From TrEMBL:
UniProt name for this protein: Elongation of fatty acids protein
Catalytic activity from the UniProt record: an acyl-CoA + malonyl-CoA + H(+) = a 3-oxoacyl-CoA + CO2 + CoA
A cellular component annotation (GO) from this entry: endoplasmic reticulum membrane
GO MF annotation list: fatty acid elongase activity
BP GO annotations: fatty acid elongation, monounsaturated fatty acid; fatty acid elongation, polyunsaturated fatty acid; fatty acid elongation, saturated fatty acid; sphingolipid biosynthetic process; very long-chain fatty acid biosynthetic process
Taxonomic path: Eukaryota, Fungi, Dikarya, Ascomycota, Pezizomycotina
Family matches, as InterPro entries: ELO_fam
Main location: membrane
Enzyme superclass (EC): transferase
Ranges that cross the membrane: 12-29, 49-69, 212-233, 288-304
Subcellular location: Membrane
Record's bilayer topology term: Multi-pass membrane protein
Length: 305
C-alpha cells in the first residue's frame, strides 16, 4: 500500500526480523516448557484468557471467510460471458493476470475501480494476517505445550512466501499461483479456526472431525501445488496488438490490450490485427521465480506435516 505503514511492511526488514525473533522465541519457550514438564503458564479453559482465545479464533475464521468470498466476487465480476467466442482464452487470461494484467501494484485497475475490485488488495490483507496468526503459537506455548517443527516452518514460511507475492503484485503482476494459494488457505482457515473456537468452548467434537481437517489441509497444499506447477506449462491464445511485429511482455493480456485499444478480435470492428498468438501464463522472470519459490515451499510443507 502507498502509505508509510505499507512501505515498511513491503520492505524486507519487517518479515525477516519477525521470522528471526519468532524462531528464537519458539526455540527458547519450547525448552522452557520442557523444563517445566509442560505445565500451563495460565489457565486457558475459562476466564478472561479463555474468552480471548474464543474471540481470537472466531475473528480469524470470519476474516478468512471474508477474504475468500471477496476474492471470489472479484473473479466473478471479471469472468467472461459463456457466449464469448473466446471464452476459454479469456478465462485463462483472467486467472493468469488476476488483477487485469495492468494494475499498478496495489492501486486498483482503471477498468475495475476501487480496492474491493483488486485481488492484490486482498492479498495484501492476507499477508498482514500471517503476522496475526503467530498468536496461535503464543496460545500453544502458554498452555505449556511445544510448537512442532512443522508448525514453525508453516507459519514462518507463509510470511516470507506471501511477502514475495506482495512484492510481485507491487510491480503489477499477481499470478494464478498466489490466487490459488490464498483462496485455498482462507477456505481452510475458515473451517479450522471455527473448529478451534468451538473446542475452546469445551464442546465435544467427533474424532473424525480432526482427521477430516488433516485431510483438508493436505488437500489445500496439493491443490496449490498442482495449480502452481500447471502455470509453468499453460499457454493460451490471445490477440496480437496492431502495429507491432511482436507484442512486448505485459501486452499479451486481453485486459491490457483492450485498455489501450490496439487490437480487435477476429470478426470485430477495430484497428487490431485479428491475429491470435500463443501466450505463456507466466510472462516474466519475476512471476516464474515467485511461482517456483511457492512450489518449493508447498512441497516442503507436504514433506514435514
Amino acid at each position: 500500500m502507498d502509505s508509510p505503514f505499507g512501505r515498511v511492511m513491503q520492505g524486507e526488514t519487517i518479515p525477516i526480523m519477525t521470522v528471526a525473533i519468532y524462531l528464537l522465541a519458539v526455540f527458547y519457550m519450547n525448552r522452557r516448557n520442557r523444563g517445566r514438564s509442560h505445565k500451563p503458564w495460565i489457565s486457558t479453559t475459562g476466564g478472561w484468557a479463555g474468552t480471548m482465545i474464543v474471540a481470537y479464533n472466531s475473528a480469524l475464521s470470519a476474516f478468512s471467510a471474508w477474504i475468500f468470498l471477496s476474492s471470489f466476487r472479484v473473479l466473478q465480476r471479471r469472468w467472461p460471458s459463456s457466449n464469448d467466442p473466446d471464452y476459454a482464452s479469456r478465462a485463462v487470461d483472467i486467472l493468469c493476470n488476476v488483477d487485469g494484467g495492468h494494475s499498478n501494484g496495489f492501486q486498483p485497475s482503471r477498468d475495475h475501480p476501487g480496492r474491493s475490485n483488486s485481488i492484490a488488495y486482498y492479498t495484501w490483507l492476507f499477508y498482514l494476517s500471517k503476522y496475526v496468526e503467530l498468536v496461535d503459537h503464543v496460545i500453544t506455548l502458554t498452555k505449556g505445550k511445544e510448537v512442532s517443527f512443522a508448525h514453525v516452518f508453516h507459519h514462518s514460511g507463509a510470511i516470507l512466501a506471501l511477502w514475495v507475492a506482495v512484492r510481485c503484485a507491487e510491480v503489477g503482476r499477481l499470478g494464478v499461483a498466489s490466487l490459488a494459494g490464498m483462496m485455498a488457505n482462507t477456505a481452510f482457515h475458515t473451517v479450522i479456526y471455527s473448529y478451534y473456537a468451538i473446542t475452546s468452548l469445551r464442546v465435544r467434537v467427533p474424532r473424525v472431525m480432526k482427521r477430516t481437517l488433516i485431510a483438508l489441509q493436505i488437500a489445500q497444499f496439493i491443490l496449490t501445488l498442482v495449480v502452481t506447477t500447471g502455470s509453468f506449462l499453460t499457454k493460451y491464445m490471445a490477440p496480437m496488438p496492431a502495429g507491432l511485429d511482436y507484442p512486448p511482455p505485459g501486452q499479451f493480456a486481453f485486459a491490457a490490450a483492450e485498455e489501450v485499444g490496439r487490437f480487435h478480435l477476429p470478426g470485430q470492428n477495430g484497428s487490431g490485427t485479428g491475429l491470435m498468438i500463443p501466450v505463456p501464463c507466466l510472462q516474466t522472470t519475476t512471476e516464474a521465480f515467485t511461482s517456483f519459490l511457492g512450489a518449493v515451499y508447498v512441497m516442503a510443507l507436504l514433506l514435514v506435516i
